[in-house]
Amino acid sequence: MVFDIDMIKKVYAELPGKVEATRKMLGRPLTLSEKILYAHLYAPTTAAYERGKSYVEFAPDRVAMQDATAQMALLQFMTCGRDQVAVPSTVHCDHLIQAKVGAEQDLAVAIDTNKEVYDFLSSISNKYGIGFWKPGAGIIHQVVIENYAFPGGMMIGTDSHTPNAGGMGMLAIGVGGADAVDVMAGLPWELKMPKLIGVKLTGKLSGWVSAKDVILKVAGILTVKGGTGCIVEYFGEGADSLSATGKGTICNMGAEIGATCSVFAYDQKMSDYLKITAREEVATLADGVKDHLRPDTEVYADPSKYYDQVIEINLDELEPYVNGPFTPDLAWPISKFAQAVKENNWPEKLEVALIGSCTNSSYEDISRSASLAEQAVAKNLKVKSEFTITPGSEQVRFTIERDGLLKTFDKIGGIVLANACGPCIGQWARHIDDPTRKNSIITSFNRNFAKRNDGLASTHAFVASPEIVTALAIAGDLTFNPLKDTLKNEEGKDVKLDEPKGFELPPNGFAVDDPGYQAPAADGSNVEVVVSPTSDRLQLLAPFKAWEGTDLKGLKLLIKAKGKCTTDHISMAGPWLKYRGHLDNISNNMLIGAVNAYNDKTDSVKNQLTGEYGPVPATARAYKAANIGSVVVGDENYGEGSSREHAAMEPRHLGVRAILVKSFARIHETNLKKQGMLALTFANKEDYDLIQEDDTFDINGLTSFTPGQPLTVVAHHKDGSSSEIVANHTYNEQQIEWFKSGGALNVIRAQFAK
């Protein structure tokens, strides 16, 4: 079945006229991103928007939510006054399934453990017209690319890897739940007009090199914040040569460079994928407007004239890459990786290798990895590392089982996990003899921050393609280079692995018995959404208080975070996922992973009321109980990583009034604004060093809070002196209204109440 075909027909019917009008207005040829962006304006414009500066209101075609973030998004949506969602929307149950034993048992345990949450999500989806994908159906991004993504569309999703759908030519952008509420309520969605980075791909992949290596190299070039505020648009004959799912892999991991999203132009590979996933009607419609689903020819001829930055990569010369540890932009070509391992004294022994996830669980990925597993059996090699496989969807799992690939992995001791996020997001009950022992793992996932996969700071996590991960699993050694090294088999012979081989698409097509989809009720008016008042997993929301109307005085320093502070540091996943629908309970994990600049410890800050050191959440609660607001100070790219809005809601709930940092990651800054927080940056980054442990803050200028006008933060020090700090912000008029009203949801609620 083709979902939402009438919506897709409408987009394509209007696209040629909108593109032509935009081309005429701008007076020049257009990139693909510009065509899609201007075709999705909430209201027409007669003037061009300035990249990187103009705030623009868009009308996305659809919304997707994973179960961990959907809880808070839908708890907010319940309060806004609508009977049904205004655009096609879906919920996907993929985050709450812990990998422990294997797919069947882990799924059964998850369904039992999370019954209350699944029942809530199922019933609220049923009530408001939202498609519901049950636990076991698959990971949100794989399910979206198989069922919903279409070239030229625009969607938002409450997960930072929503850009995966860019592999199908869609602008798909990760957002916080409050943004999703806007769109589901039929309101405009606001985004600063992105800058454009063009990546020209020439040549063609061969041998051991895969699409994953393209983004691993790009991450090394741009770093974890090099794509912030930008759309990365891939083009060239090299781009057209990549499979649709390979393109998806590249777009998925664009989140690791901070990109708003990434996108590829419509081509034959996308058409083929639409057809094999039972969407031939969409392929036919796309073919009818294909010139509007690609950059104009003049853009190809002179890309530097149309993109803010251009990167060129020759796929003929590309090597496999291994990135890490502890950050996804530390990029090592395989030819230099062994040396890096030795020089940095990283543990050479590979203990666990994990393939799959939303980034790399396509049929192509699995079949190429399976070809290496077959070689291991045929060449009498014993696999040295633990090895797990995470299928991206039930459709992928069913098809690879039908085609015998799961049996192949079974022969080398591979464990198939549930069709869910699992170890990629910390939902992994890892078996290890000593949790403090330095050890190495490698995954085909997208993120490898400290503690990300197994909660252990001692784990050195590396990221590579499924092929390289599988080869290293066979070797059990990070210094092994499968392109040139040999392995000693069980007979004592030296054998070499041949290049992996696979299929872009299943030769016999996809198949599935039960994809796991539940359609909503045609009329949800009588559907009851029940949330127990005594539940420790779900909690109905009360509106945050509006701004007092004065400058803020006497705020206490809660924590001065040192170094990398991602959303995993601010609001950990793993075991905390079960509280994603209960704001007060999950707030007990607030900033417990952030490093205190004054003692280099985590979850240990000074309580200025008692002089004692204690957990961050407890200290915040003490200030809140005393009716004292607090301030969090942070470093560069604060809030990078996941889109989780809990990292903004928790500080808001516990009385934090402002976050003052050197720079923000895009989604987190927006999330803070949506919750009525002050997201401020040091005008002079060196002023970070002025902040002292016993500081009390005044924030001045709020009574004349204006776009483009800095605020003043006065840090009063314990010795009686003070430092005056200029604090920049990026608030526009609407966002200032969010702050004054106590949050964007309060503004929405007031609009629907009229």
TrEMBL record:
It holds the Pfam family Aconitase. Its EC number is 4.2.1.3. It comes from the Bacteria. Residues 557-684 form the Aconitase A/isopropylmalate dehydratase small subunit swivel domain. It catalyses: citrate = D-threo-isocitrate. CDD domains: AcnA_Mitochondrial. Its cofactor is [4Fe-4S] cluster. InterPro entries: Acnase/IPM_dHydase_lsu_aba_1/3 (IPR015931), Acoase/IPM_deHydtase_lsu_aba (IPR001030), Aconitase/3IPM_dehydase_swvl (IPR015928), Aconitase/IPM_isomerase (IPR050926), Aconitase_4Fe-4S_BS (IPR018136), Aconitase_4Fe-4S_dom (IPR036008), Aconitase_dom2 (IPR015932), Aconitase_mito-like (IPR006248). SUPFAM superfamilies: Aconitase iron-sulfur domain (SSF53732), LeuD/IlvD-like (SSF52016). Residues 34-476 form the Aconitase/3-isopropylmalate dehydratase large subunit alpha/beta/alpha domain. GO terms for molecular function: 4 iron, 4 sulfur cluster binding; aconitate hydratase activity; metal ion binding. One of its GO terms (biological process) is tricarboxylic acid cycle. GO terms for cellular component: cytosol. Keywords: Iron, Iron-sulfur, Lyase, Metal-binding, Transit peptide, Tricarboxylic acid cycle. Pathway: Carbohydrate metabolism; tricarboxylic acid cycle; isocitrate from oxaloacetate: step 2/2. NCBIfam families: aconitase_mito, PRK07229.1. Belongs to the aconitase/IPM isomerase family. This is Aconitate hydratase A. It comes from Chitinophaga caeni.
